Each structure stands twice: as C-alpha cells, then as structure tokens.
C-alpha cells in the first residue's frame, strides 16, 4: 500500500485537511460504478466490511463480488451476469446476525448470508411486444415458414422500436448466420414468446423502525417500469409500485409501515416519486441523464446530472437549488455528520476530486490521484466516519473524517456583522445553534420518536389498568367446579356440563355458563345458573357441531356478573367426524 499526502490545500481555497489517509491501494484492480459499493457486517460480528460489485475488465468479462477488510481482499464470488446494484439489509430488528447482501444482476436477485449463496429470486417475465408476438405466431401456424420473410419482419421491428423491447429469442435469431436460422426457427416457433424481467436497480426501505439495525424491504426497479417491494423474510413480492418509466436509481424515505415514499430517476431523465397505493408523481424532466441519487434532509432528494449540474428537490418535488459543477459528476452519496447536526453531499467530479456540499454551499474538497467512479460513506471496521472510494483506474482509497472537522466555511449575507471586529461565540450559544440545526434537519425523525414514546406510554398505562382490574378480585380456592363430557356419535354432539358447589353454603347469585367454540358451533352459548346447593351437581346440556372434518374444541367458563375473571373453567375436545362410506 502507498500513502498519499493530503495536506495540500483544496483547489477551491478551502485550507486545512479534514480527512485522514487510511488506505491507498492503486493496484486493487476494482472496476465499480455508482451504486456498486456497500459497507456491511457480513458475518454478524460487529465488524463492517467493504463489499464491491466488480464489473471486471473488457478482456476477462467476469463480474465478481469482492469483500475487503481494510485494504485486504478476503473473499470473492463470481456472478453469472453484470450487476446493476447491490445493497445490504437486515431481516430482523436488532439482530446483527440477520444481515444479508442482495445483488441485482440480469433477471435475478442473488441473496448472500455470511457471504454464502442463500437465495435466488427470479423476476417475473414481461409480456413480449404485440407486433413481435404476432410475427412469431404466424410463423408457428405455417407448416413451412419462410425464414427470409420472418427475418425481414423482425429486422424492421428492430429498426422501429430498438433492441430494448425485443425478446432474447429475436435478438439471437437476428445475430445468427443464415444457415443456422432454419433449425432455430423450427425449434422455437411454437414456444410461447416472453421477455425475461430485468432488474435495473435495487435499493432498500425501512420497514417499521429507525434503529441502526432495523429490518428492511428490498426495492427492485424493473425494465417494465415497476418497482417490486420484496419481503426480506419470505422473499415474496408484497407490493408493486407502478412508476411508468424504467428507473436507474431508487431511494426509499420514511417507514414502509407508516408514511413512506420512493424517489426514482429514469434513464430518460424523468425524476419523480411514488407512494404505496397511489400513482407516481413526476417531479421534473432533467436536461440530461442522471448519474446518481441521494437523500436530502426532510425526505428531499439530490440528483447529479451528466450535464455537470447538481439539483436539490423537496419531498413534494419543488426544486430547491441548482449548482453548476466544474466538470461531469461521476457519483453522489450522502455524508451525514450528526455530531455537527449536518447532512452533507459528496460529489465525485472528473479532474476535480470529491467536492463536499452543505446544501448548495461548497465546504470542502477531497483531492485524489485519479477520478473517483464510486463512493460509499459509513462505518468501516472500528471507524464510524469512513469514506471509501474506487477510482476509474481501479484503485481503492479510504479516508477517515476527523472528529474535529468543522464545515462552517460560509456565512449567509444577511448574517454578516456591520463592524470589522471579530468576537467569540459562547459555547452554550454554539451548542444551542447546533441543536436547532439538528432539529430542523431531522424534524420528521424527532416527531416520529416522540409519537413512538407517546404510544409506548399509552400502552404501558393500558396494561397497568388491565392488571389492576384483573388482579383486584376475590382470591382463594374456587367454590364451584365444572365437569363436562361429550355424548353422541356425531356430527351433532351433546355436551353434558355438571356444575357443583363444593362450599358448605349456597352459591352466589348471578352465576352463568359461557361456551366458546373453536372450529365448532355451540348452542346455546350462554346459560344462566340457579342457586347451587352444597355438593349437589347441577347438569346442563348444550349442543355442539364441528364446522369441518377436523376435531373442534369447546372452552366452558363459569362466570359471575360484575367480575372480570371466571369462577371456574374447563375445556373439552369434540371428536373428528368420520367420512360416510358409500356402499
């Protein structure tokens, strides 16, 4: 490994390095694009590691998943197709061992646990183009299809609509030599024509918790313009969000169990959001294709565009600001600094390193030897604030944000003093301002935390009230016992209930019998009891019938008016009904 000196001032004049050099491995030979990095505790040991979706070189053409601990490669796994993204997720709340990795590649999503293949989810197929399906249908009806006419019709369709709407069967036929086409057509002309579903991007959305280790759902963007919401426990589709365009980047905001939103950007520049149970809303039509997408404070979104601009949008789709970058952006990631109450953006710009923005204000620059093609910020190993970068030349670089880093490099014009002398801001005032900024940037999270605490308080109060109602009852042995037996062969049974007062005096008034059937119908369900003499069993008859061929269960409770707990109870099983045998 080679160390770099990062003490030189930034190109923008922002002096003083806020970053420490941790790893610089120029010969790592990693070729990663935006969305191809993840930092995840792959083994559940509390040691997050770097996971890379390596596309491979043009000569090898072999995509791999590589896992790094620090700057050392510890494992790698081959992929059958080029990955379109990878994300880490947890399937259980508060359980580090439930961490897993999901890789979208081609028409499948591969799930790894402990970096071992765990599950493969195949996307549902899409319907083929109507004209293409009609052409193959005609070929299947003919006894001797004309290969030349079939090929000409498919080539015309390819010129009109492009290769993205055609099936692999058609593309393979058009790429064959003429002497191989007749046998191929004869083999597949009567097979139903479908197009495999293709995963264009992948992301996660939290299920019901804001904790650091919280369960999530997978968001899979497809070529058909849908977003599949995949349960991470059963790996089944729980919802389909209709977007209307093919997404290339997704971010999920909020909690899926409450108010959530999925922000998506397409390869044609369409940027919008979609909520569960509602139609998608188009925010803006970008002037050029998008490079990457990131979250802003308040559930907004920032998007880097290939024309060299950086856009910020509110959660309702209103444009907040637009920045013109000095060159073409290559990647965009969020850079939260909760200790300072900040939520920054890191933008990789060709020939200008990585530029750090606080909203639309440029606050720092990370100088690199090469342009950075992919970035990821988060905890890596024992470091909480590590910026991992992969350069276009295949190098691996890790920087650590200093704990004393201060990004307050600009002052709003209206806040400038009217005098030239400088003054020291008191510590309490500075803490108050930082706390106010944090409350503004995380208002939704703080509001949700308050309501969760209020709900827990209400639940605790209700439990205490129920305990008081149920425990403050007469205690001691029950003066009444119940004995029950089943009479009959079915399917209609009679239940004989004998109620006996075992005390020396008459029983209390207001006693009654309640019958609760499980998979059984009981008539009558409630019976009033007379005064019970001492040691004399009082019989009561009720009728019961199982609702199906499975045996039923009847719970019999002796209750007293004005009392929550039953005086006595018992249960009885109804025999299963035997099927009638036809003579």
From TrEMBL:
What InterPro entries does this protein's entry cite? BBS1, BBS1_N, GAE_BBS1, Quinoprotein_ADH-like_sf, WD40/YVTN_repeat-like_dom_sf
Q: Where is the Bardet-Biedl syndrome 1 protein GAE domain?
A: 482-578
For this protein, the record's SUPFAM superfamilies field holds: Quinoprotein alcohol dehydrogenase-like (SSF50998)
Q: What sequence ranges are listed for the domain Bardet-Biedl syndrome 1 N-terminal?
A: 19-275
One Pfam annotation, family name? Answer: BBS1
Taxonomically, the superkingdom here is Eukaryota
> One cellular component GO annotation, for this chain's record?
axoneme
An example GO biological process term is:
non-motile cilium assembly
Q: What is this protein called?
A: Bardet-Biedl syndrome 1 protein homolog isoform X2
Q: Its gene?
A: LOC107228081
């Amino acid at each position: 490994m080679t160390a770099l000196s990062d003490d030189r001032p930034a190109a923008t004049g922002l002096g003083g390095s806020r970053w420490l050099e941790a790893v610089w491995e120029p010969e790592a030979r990693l070729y990663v694009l935006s969305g191809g990095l993840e930092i995840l505790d792959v083994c559940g040991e509390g040691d997050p590691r770097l996971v890379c979706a390596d596309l491979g070189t043009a000569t090898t053409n072999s995509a791999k998943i590589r896992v790094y601990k620090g700057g050392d490669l510890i494992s790698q796994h081959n992929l059958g197709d080029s990955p379109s993204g990878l994300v880490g997720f947890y399937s259980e709340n508060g359980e580090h061992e439930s961490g897993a990795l999901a890789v979208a590649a081609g028409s499948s999503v591969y799930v790894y646990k402990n970096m071992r293949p765990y599950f493969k989810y195949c996307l549902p197929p899409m319907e083929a183009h109507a004209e293409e399906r009609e052409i193959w249908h005609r070929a299947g009806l003919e006894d001797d299809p004309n290969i030349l006419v079939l090929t000409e019709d498919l080539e015309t369709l390819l010129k009109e609509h492009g290769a993205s709407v055609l099936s692999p069967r058609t593309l393979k036929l058009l790429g064959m030599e003429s002497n191989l086409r007749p046998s191929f057509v004869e083999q597949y002309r009567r097979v139903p024509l479908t197009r495999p579903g293709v995963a264009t991007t992948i992301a996660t959305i939290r299920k019901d918790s804001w904790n650091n280790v919280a369960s999530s759902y997978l968001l899979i963007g497809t070529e058909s313009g849908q977003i599949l919401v995949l349960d991470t426990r059963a790996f089944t589709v729980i919802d389909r969000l209709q977007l209307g365009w093919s997404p290339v980047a997704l971010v999920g905001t909020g909690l899926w169990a409450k108010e959530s939103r999925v922000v998506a950007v397409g390869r044609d520049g369409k940027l919008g959001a979609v909520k569960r149970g509602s139609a998608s809303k188009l925010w803006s039509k970008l002037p050029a294709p998008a490079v990457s997408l990131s979250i802003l404070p308040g559930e907004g979104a920032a998007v880097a565009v290939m024309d060299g601009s950086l856009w910020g949008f509110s959660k309702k789709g209103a444009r907040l600001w637009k920045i013109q970058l000095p060159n073409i952006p290559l990647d965009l990631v969020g850079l939260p600094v909760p200790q300072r109450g900040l939520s920054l953006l890191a933008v990789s710009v060709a020939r200008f390193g990585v530029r750090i923005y606080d909203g639309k204000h440029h606050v720092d620059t990370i100088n690199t030897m090469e342009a950075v093609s992919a970035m990821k910020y988060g905890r890596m190993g024992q470091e909480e604030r590590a910026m991992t970068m992969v350069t276009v030349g295949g190098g691996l670089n890790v920087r650590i944000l200093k704990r004393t880093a201060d990004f307050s490099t600009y002052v709003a014009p209206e806040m400038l003093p009217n005098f030239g002398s400088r003054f020291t801001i008191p510590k309490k005032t500075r803490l108050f301002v930082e706390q106010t900024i944090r409350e503004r940037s995380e208002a939704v999270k703080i509001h949700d935390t308050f309501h969760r605490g209020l709900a827990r308080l209400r639940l605790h109060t209700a439990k205490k009230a129920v305990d008081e109602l149920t425990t403050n009852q007469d205690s001691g042995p029950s003066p009444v016992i119940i004995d029950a037996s089943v009479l009959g062969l079915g399917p209609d049974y009679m239940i004989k209930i004998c109620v006996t007062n075992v005390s020396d005096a008459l029983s209390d008034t207001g006693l009654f019998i309640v019958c609760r059937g499980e998979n059984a119908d009981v008539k009558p369900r409630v019976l009033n009891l007379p005064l019970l003499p001492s040691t004399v069993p009082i019989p009561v008859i009720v009728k019961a019938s199982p609702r199906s061929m499975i045996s039923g269960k009847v719970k019999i409770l002796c209750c007293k008016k004005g009392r929550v707990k039953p005086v006595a109870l018992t249960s009885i099983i109804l025999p299963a009904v035997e099927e009638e045998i036809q003579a």
